[in-house]
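Quick one, probably user error.
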């Protein structure tokens, strides 16, 4: 997984989602950042966030990407300035 933040300038973070856990009315995604620093981050989704997330995942281009990753995943993707 790659992450960028306007607060970090052009720095690109690399990491992995490690856990997804429901706590109260929130769904937490925990990620371990591995490069260039070692951080443990979390993102909390409310119920109102889930519908747009699922609808975005169900778009044909995104579904094609997901199925391709499930069947043929594991390839390294080159870095791009567009991200």
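Nope, works fine. Designed sequence:
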């Amino acid at each position: 997984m790659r992450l960028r933040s306007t607060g970090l300038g052009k720095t690109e973070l690399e990491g992995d989602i490690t856990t997804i856990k429901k706590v109260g009315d929130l769904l937490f995604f925990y990620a371990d950042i591995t490069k260039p620093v070692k951080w443990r981050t979390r993102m909390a989704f409310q119920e109102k966030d889930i519908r747009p997330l699922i609808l975005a995942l169900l778009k044909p281009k995104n579904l094609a990407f997901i199925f391709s990753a499930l069947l043929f995943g594991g390839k390294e993707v080159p870095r791009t300035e567009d991200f």
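The two ends are 12 Å apart (CA to CA).
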